[in-house]
Amino acid sequence: MEMEGIGGLRHLFMTVFLHGFASFMVIPAITDITMLALCPGQDECSLAIYLSGFQQAMIGLGTVVMTPLIGNLSDVYGRKSLLTIPMTLSIVPLAILAYSRKTSFFYAYYVLRTVTALVGEGSINCLTLAYVADNVSERERISAFGILAGFTSAAFVCGTLAARFLSTALTFQVAAFGSMLSTIYMRIFLKESLTGDDSTLRQPILKGGVPEVVDEGDVYSPKTIQVFKKIPSPGDLISLLRSSKILSQAAVVSFFQSLAEGGMQASLMYFLKARFHFNKNQFADLMLIIGISGTISQLLFMPMLATAIGEEKLLPIGLIMGSMNMFLNSISWAVWVPYAATLFSVFGFLVQPSIRSIASKQVGPNDQGKAQGCISGISSFANIVSPLIFSPLTALFLSEEAPFYFPGFSILCIGLATMIAFVQSLMIRASPHKTSNTICVESP
């Protein structure tokens, strides 16, 4: 397919914006809804922390398998076809809470949100990144990844702003409608990035390199003996990572950065709820500042800095700033400190686009779905491990049984995980890009 450049991605950007708007709108309210359903009238609730951590771990477990699978299948059947599945499924749990927020409906939401996120949590991001790689040259790719992340941040800002002024009931109703609208828009306007003439679609991931003729009576022909490799095995993912030292280094960075990010999702809101009695509006205000910082960073700073210094240097800058954000949050002594700490997140948003761009340049054009799926799978594995570590740690240090008084100790540990990623990122050096299409293929 001929490269269309960044300008040809406008419908993808709109799809990402609409879907992100619907998804992010409910985040400020979900903590209060969870606490109200499980521990009404309390500011500290270990059950809510553990259930949220369990959900995050289950979602991570599912996406470890599903994201590489969907990434692989998108190299065969196209990005648009595979995007339809997770985007459609994401409508269901939002519609439940749009109808009612009673305890029984919350549990229904909890179960269905867990099940549907197994498919959609990492798949949408993986597929949109692969779509960008299909349509943009390597020279422009880092800027395109940054702009895509910028639209996600802009959706975060708009969704959070809407949640700040809408009632809880109306928030979920608008979110459900927005999720349906994004799916319909994608199906109507987004063009498939892999066309029917693409050799990847005509001859998808083969089990063997040479067609096998089984019957001399022409019952089978070489064209019909094409064995699809549907599910990438752990050996395939290891083979892909071993094909490039830089790709394996990017995977290690992605693991520890995702470990920290997952820990923040599992712990930070409950820490702020217990420490400073944050409510929906304060969560929305904080997220709004973070979202605006991310939008500015990814839409303005990222294209300029990527051209000037490259993603290999942007990556450690983003990681060190992200760790400073966590360290400052961990010692919060006043309610304004978490707001001030968000200044460091301006550069923290550079991390994921930089990792994805580095990974994208290590594989050929027909393997973008596999590469992004492998990185997403590693990130998902980190999201399994993260709540198993940080949810109990947060619950312990927010309780009266803490071994010593340090309510933000789990947040400090999250910052240390980011520092490990920072040290690894310093070892990444630019090298000639790979163009091989033989990775992630099952041995005969």
From TrEMBL:
<keyword id="KW-0813">Transport</keyword>
<feature type="transmembrane region" description="Helical">
    <location>
        <begin position="47"/>
        <end position="70"/>
    </location>
</feature>
<feature type="transmembrane region" description="Helical">
    <location>
        <begin position="172"/>
        <end position="190"/>
    </location>
</feature>
<keyword id="KW-0812">Transmembrane</keyword>
<dbReference type="GO" id="GO:0016020">
    <property type="term" value="C:membrane"/>
</dbReference>
<feature type="transmembrane region" description="Helical">
    <location>
        <begin position="373"/>
        <end position="398"/>
    </location>
</feature>
<feature type="transmembrane region" description="Helical">
    <location>
        <begin position="330"/>
        <end position="352"/>
    </location>
</feature>
<feature type="transmembrane region" description="Helical">
    <location>
        <begin position="82"/>
        <end position="100"/>
    </location>
</feature>
<dbReference type="InterPro" id="IPR011701">
    <property type="entry name" value="MFS"/>
</dbReference>
<feature type="transmembrane region" description="Helical">
    <location>
        <begin position="12"/>
        <end position="35"/>
    </location>
</feature>
<protein>
    <submittedName>
        <fullName>Hippocampus abundant transcript 1 protein</fullName>
    </submittedName>
</protein>
<dbReference type="InterPro" id="IPR036259">
    <property type="entry name" value="MFS_trans_sf"/>
</dbReference>
<keyword id="KW-0472">Membrane</keyword>
<dbReference type="InterPro" id="IPR020846">
    <property type="entry name" value="MFS_dom"/>
</dbReference>
<feature type="transmembrane region" description="Helical">
    <location>
        <begin position="283"/>
        <end position="310"/>
    </location>
</feature>
<dbReference type="GO" id="GO:0022857">
    <property type="term" value="F:transmembrane transporter activity"/>
</dbReference>
<feature type="transmembrane region" description="Helical">
    <location>
        <begin position="144"/>
        <end position="166"/>
    </location>
</feature>
<keyword id="KW-1133">Transmembrane helix</keyword>
<dbReference type="Pfam" id="PF07690">
    <property type="entry name" value="MFS_1"/>
</dbReference>
<feature type="transmembrane region" description="Helical">
    <location>
        <begin position="404"/>
        <end position="423"/>
    </location>
</feature>
<feature type="domain" description="Major facilitator superfamily (MFS) profile">
    <location>
        <begin position="8"/>
        <end position="433"/>
    </location>
</feature>
